[in-house]
Specification:
Radius of gyration: 21 Å
Number of helices: 2
Structural class: mainly beta
Strand content: 25-35%
Largest sheet: 19 strands, parallel
Number of strands: 35
Shape: elongated
Distance between the termini: 23 Å
Oligomer: single chain
Helix content: under 10%
Amino acid sequence: MRTQLSILAIAVGVLAAHPAPADTFTVNTTVDRSDADAADGVCDVDPTTPGAQCTLRAAIQQANAIAGPSTIELPAGIYKLTMRGANEDGATTGDLDINGRLTIEGAGAKTTIIDAKRAKDRIFDILPAGNVTLTDVTLLRGRVGRGKAGGCVRNTGHLTLRRAVLTRCKSAGDGGALDSAGTATVTDVLFIQNKSRHDGGALTTIAGNVTVRRCTFAANRAGGEGGALDSSAGTVDVTNSTFTANRARLEGGAIVNEDNGVMTLTNCTIAGNEAKAGGGISAQPGAGPSVSPTRLRNCILADNKKANCEGAVISDGGNLDSGTSCAFGAGSLSGTDPKLGPLQDNGGLTPTLALAADSPAIDAGTDAECPATDQRELPRRDIPGRGTATCDIGAYEFQP
């Protein structure tokens, strides 16, 4: 299966910004400097120069000092983090620490890029008191060393991430792009070419709560388990999302659910991933006698190397297995080729794997709890004379 992974060709486009609240800081320079006085309510790194020079770092420091919610407007530009110095929580050096209620609005993921290569640290560290909404940005080349997690973002508070690209971030621990021990809602996000030395090439959670909607995970790598997504004792709900060309050295080329975590996958396409075992999904036993409950509805698992499924997955109907390892049973298709196209821009905000016109997945899902739209936010629709349902299997709905 041919995979097209050009970031410029498939990255998220520019979308409209939201109205700003009263406490708003507008960044007007791409340089990386700390605020001159982080508690005076004025975003300015150099009071001796006429006008205010408001950097992203300075704006975050000012926002942290505000008791109520605030907003940072981040215009188009490449914001290179250059101030080295990890292991502090005041956003003065290294990553950008956030400990309050903050919205950061970029001008679009194609044009608003935060690059942490020179800082040699992750990009954002959301502390337990942090409640962050981050939209319309690309996060590039964050990295953390041994014993640390979250190459782009570490979240121990609350994170809402929308219309973003997380790419080429690295972790010597878990979570090549995002590590979330708190609550995270991730929508219309492309995770591409991220790496972890341990688990979760793109995203990992340990006992956290993660909701994923209309996302694509492509070409992420894990030195341990979960080439794209690894959940340990977490609660994870994934809908209308695509996993392809991810790889893990051990189990779960795309996804691992372990330690009695609860995971639900609805209308997802998981194809062309690779691992030593369970190239698609690995559902591993917990500490007790039960197996981590991993429920699938209307999902495609196809052409994942070393089996589409490992362990016990629970089918709620309408699934498709190109082999037989998932043991879906009645109400699903086994040993069936879904006839998928390459990863590319098929409309919508994230790239998808299209169904061919003669795909057996068309109108073969179950309509019970089927989302009204697909990954591209196009309507689920019935094709006359095909199948018995309106809902197609997978993240992509065929449109004649």
